[in-house]
Specification:
This is DNA-binding response regulator. One of its GO terms (molecular function) is DNA binding. Keywords: DNA-binding, Phosphoprotein. It comes from Amycolatopsis bullii. The protein has 230 residues and is α/β, with parallel strands linked by helices. Helix 2 packs parallel to helix 3, helix 6 packs across helix 7 and helix 6 crosses helix 8. It is 43% helix and 19% strand. It is globular and about 55 Å long. The chain is built from nine helices and twelve strands. The longest helix has 18 residues. The two termini are 19 Å apart.
């Protein structure tokens, strides 16, 4: 889940509370950062404040929908007027919360949005710069050039790009890509990361996949590097 709000206390409280509900939470403090992160398509839902520095929540939502990002968005505002809510819904919002709101109501809204989105919600296209990972067709393109990957290589890249901007450990990749297969070791993760990196290198996209020594692997690009928290 992506939380975009310019109030540090609100971000911290929501991150703590939502994580306690079992959600993986990333936060952003302004409109441009929120747009950059949400534009990857890697989140299941976005909680988006309307009054943001740099770019309003309305404009962020408008740009996301224009770019074809279908991630469910819950708008948050101190305004409770019908026109404000109608404007947000017309732009493509999936819900509208008025500050101050009950945390219990927020969690219920998030779960309701995810239920409405259904199992296909996580089958859209992930984007990292010019790299597009189509989870429905299971195809990868760099600009207009297709990158041919085996099913296992695709699954590995899908996990890394799906968590773009965050380090993914070898153990996390083992669980996500190989599941409970008994004979699999961390060394196999290194081997497959090498396979994927070589194929990305061949089309000029190798810099998107990095090794964070002692921790795991990171999928990112220059624009995302500018907005992610170290």
């Amino acid at each position: 889940m992506l939380v975009v709000d310019d109030e540090p206390g609100v971000r911290k409280a929501l991150q703590r509370g939502l994580r306690a509900e079992g959600m993986d939470v990333v936060t952003a403090a302004d409109g441009p950062t929120g747009l950059q992160l949400a534009g990857t398509g890697s989140f299941d839902v976005v909680l988006l404040d309307i009054m943001l520095p740099g770019l309003s929540g309305y404009r962020v939502l408008e740009r996301l929908r224009k770019d074809g990002v279908t991630t469910p968005v819950l708008l948050v505002s101190a305004k409770d007027g019908e026109i404000d809510q109608a404007d947000g819904l017309d732009l493509g919002a999936d819900g509208y919360l008025v500050k101050p709101f009950s945390f219990v109501v927020l969690v219920a809204q998030v779960r309701a949005v995810l239920r409405r989105a259904g199992p296909e919600a996580g089958r859209g296209t992930l984007r990292l710069g010019a790299l597009a990972v189509d989870r429905g067709l299971r195809q990868v393109h760099w600009h207009d050039e297709e990158v041919a990957l085996s099913p296992r290589e695709f699954a590995l890249l899908e996990v890394l790009v799906g968590r773009a901007g965050t380090v993914v450990t070898k153990d996390e990749l083992l669980r996500a890509v190989w599941g409970e297969e008994q004979a699999v070791t961390r060394n196999l993760v290194e081997v497959y990361v090498g396979y994927v990196r070589r194929k990305l290198d061949a089309v000029g996209a190798g810099a998107l996949l990095r090794t964070v020594r002692g921790h795991g692997y990171l999928a990112s690009d220059a624009q995302l590097d500018e907005v992610i928290t170290p």
